[in-house]
Amino acid sequence: MKKNMGLADRNIRLVLGAVIAAAGLYFQSWWGLLGVVFLGTAFINWCPLYLPFGISTRKKEA
Questions:
Q1: Is the dihedral of CA 3, 5, 7, 10 positive or negative?
Q2: What is the pTM of this model?
Q3: pLDDT at 30
Q4: Neighbours of 30 (CB within 10 A)
């Protein structure tokens, strides 16, 4: 599994994931699971939706 997520993408996912998960817990909604997905992808630095499109927000290594 090759990492395909850059630092800015990862930080955005961490913040959004935490906010969505907290809102899901507060409102007792299953939408909070979406926040868990964002957090999970941020922690492993890999997004499965980027794979079929060949997207990578990671900087190119020289």
A1: negative
A2: 0.86
A3: 92
A4: 7
Q: DSSP letters of the chain?
A: ------HHHHHHHHHHHHHHHHHHHHTT-TTHHHHHHHHHHHHHT--TTTTTTT---SPPP-
Query: Which residues constitute the domain of residue 47?
Result: 1-62
Query: For residue 18, is pLDDT > 70?
Result: yes
Based on the structure, what is the number of domains in the chain?
A: 1
* Residue 31 contacts residue 20 (beta carbons within 8 Å): yes
Q: Which residue has the tokens 């409102």?
A: 27
Residue 1: Cβ within 10 Å count: 8
